[in-house]
Design brief:
Layout: E1 10-16, H1 23-33, H2 42-45, H3 58-63, H4 66-71, H5 75-91, E2 94-101, H6 113-128, E3 134-143, H7 151-163, E4 169-176, H8 187-195, E5 199-200, E6 202-204, H9 210-219, E7 224-227, H10 235-244, E8 247-250, H11 252-257, H12 269-274, E9 278-281, H13 286-289, H14 293-302, H15 308-321, H16 326-337
Parallel strand pairs: 1-2, 2-3, 3-4, 4-5, 6-7, 7-8, 8-9
Helix pairs in contact: 5-6, 7-8, 15-16
């Protein structure tokens, strides 16, 4: 593991597999499977899977998922993507990461959801071999339109998480198109997760306002919120989140590129941290966005108002919010507190 600019243990809790595969790997997999553009150089391939640094459009951002998802439709591709991601995170000196993906999006050919999850888990475990990083997997249910459109697939995802909780699956999430229908319509996902005693998080308060965060916390009982930065517009909700000790999985560059915040300086993440909320900093889709966790820390300290001490504090928040056994959380926290 290389020497890091930020020597404390680093944690990424909000990291999508299909947004984190190197362009070189994607180009090779695409060529092997005869999928995607017919280009002969990496420079010409990169624009298909990485946004322009000045991207300020959610549509442009989301377009970059189409090719990776189209490529990752067999076990070999998923294994390689997961293995190489874990290896890269270790080189970037992360101590712990939770990788998430939606298995139902990888069943266009011969795989079912179980096959997809097993391939990713096998790749993650292979990537961990001989390295100090620890990783777990979060399975994403999806909002693809109406809440009933893929209800069976979503329930299958949650049930699969229950079956594989001791094999590296740490919990579940609801991702996808926020706002196409009422978030409350997806309550069936979290009801089943509760019945199965699963940990869960929920995308909310990103492209939609703070009311979706209230739904996730009050109706679903979620103690982690994917993004969630629009909570800042509701003072009472901020108080509720503090009382419930809910963690916000903040992804600074993702919010800027998707135009859910106009600038890093205007992002409320630092203000939320100072208010006592459990802010965490994460990458979301590092390859699509052209970032790393370290570059996000650079931006946090130079443009978003964070201090280096704040970076240690947000990682302590991440350790507390992680879908890990209590003893492992305490171990990470103890290591981090040494840098305060």
């Amino acid at each position: 593991m290389k020497q890091s600019k930020y020597p404390f243990p680093k944690i990424d809790l909000h990291l999508h597999l299909d947004g984190a595969i190197s362009p070189k790997t994607l180009m090779e997999l695409a060529a092997e499977r005869n999928v995607g553009p017919k280009v002969v150089s990496l420079d010409r391939f990169i624009p298909f899977v990485v946004v322009d640094p000045n991207c300020r459009s959610v549509n442009e951002y989301l377009e970059k998922f189409e090719l990776p998802v189209g490529i990752l439709q067999d076990g070999e591709a998923l294994f390689r993507a997961a293995e190489e991601l874990v290896e890269r995170l270790d080189r970037e000196s992360l101590a712990y990461a939770e990788i998430r993906f939606a298995p139902q999006l990888h069943t266009r050919k011969s795989m079912d959801q179980t096959d997809a999850v097993k391939a990713v888990l096998d790749g993650m475990r292979s990537g961990e071999q001989g390295r100090s990083i620890e990783t777990n997997l979060i399975l994403c249910a999806m909002s693809l339109g109406g809440a009933e459109a893929n209800r069976d697939a979503n329930l299958e995802t949650v049930e699969l998480a229950g079956q594989m909780r001791f094999c590296g699956v740490a919990g579940v999430d609801l991702a996808g198109a926020e706002g196409l229908c009422e978030l409350s319509d997806f309550g069936y996902i979290f009801e089943l997760a509760g019945e199965l005693s699963l940990d869960y998080t929920c995308h909310a308060g990103d492209s939609q306002g703070p009311e979706t965060v209230r739904t996730a916390i009050s109706d679903f009982g979620s103690r982690r919120i994917g993004h969630g930065h629009h909570i800042f517009e509701d003072e009472d909700l901020c108080t509720l989140a503090k009382e419930k000790k809910a963690a916000l999985e903040i992804c600074l560059t993702s919010n800027i590129q998707c135009a859910t915040r106009r600038s890093y300086a205007a992002h409320p993440a630092k203000k939320l941290l100072d208010m006592g909320l459990n802010v965490t900093l994460n990458t979301d889709n590092p390859v699509i966005a052209g970032i790393s966790l370290e570059s996000e820390y650079d931006i946090a300290t130079t443009q978003a108002g964070f201090t280096e001490k704040d970076l240690v504090l947000v990682n302590i928040n991440s350790a507390r919010a992680a879908f890990l056994p209590e003893q492992k959380k305490l171990g990470l926290i103890k290591r981090l507190e040494a840098f305060l």
